[in-house]
GTP cyclohydrolase-2 (Amycolatopsis jiangsuensis), 218 residues
Amino acid sequence: MSTGPAAAQVRTRVRIPLRFGGEAAGTGVAQAEAVTFTGLSDGLEHLVFVLGDPGPVPLVRLHSECLTGDVFGSARCDCGPQLREAVDRISAAGGYLVYLRQEGRGIGLYNKLDAYALQDGGLDTYAANQALGLPEDARDYTAAAEMLTALGVRRLDLLSNNPDKAAQLTGHGLEVRERVPTGVFATETNVRYLRAKVEHTGHNLTLPGDLGTAGLAG
């Protein structure tokens, strides 16, 4: 892993009120500024949303795109609830939502849906990727480090249960002062997916006792 991110630069900034979030302010709308970039090493169209008033140690969330969860409210994962939580918490604390175009942990939308079909046959989310000849998790957070650096961020609190995100940002020269846990949005339809996160990639999650063994058959 490199010792520092490439010299990405801010391209445009535009204000976008977000209809979800804003609960902390009692408005139901989160005021955000979307930032685009040039010079990102992977060439993808990632975004950063500036929320609240970022201080010298902003709260940051790296959120990988999930069309099914973020847009359509799929109950197979916890991505949608995590995104909405992040907007609200970062709006209150001041910081950045880094929205990464990494559908399906980096394998793409169609491959993710193919993996869903295999999960319906009994495989967990990571084993399904492997059965397709794909990585368990193909995400690289170099571009995230590049965008944060372009915004002048050197030190941050990271809103995440995923230790790999903190490790990768640290490897790119950013200081993660604290890893702040997200909520656990467990239901009978996603508990198997959440348990796989704990078992395969060391996510820091405590599942509710009444759901801890639900949906684990096969």
The longest strand covers residues 9-18. The domain at 9-102+139-183 is CATH 3.40.50.10990 (Rossmann fold).
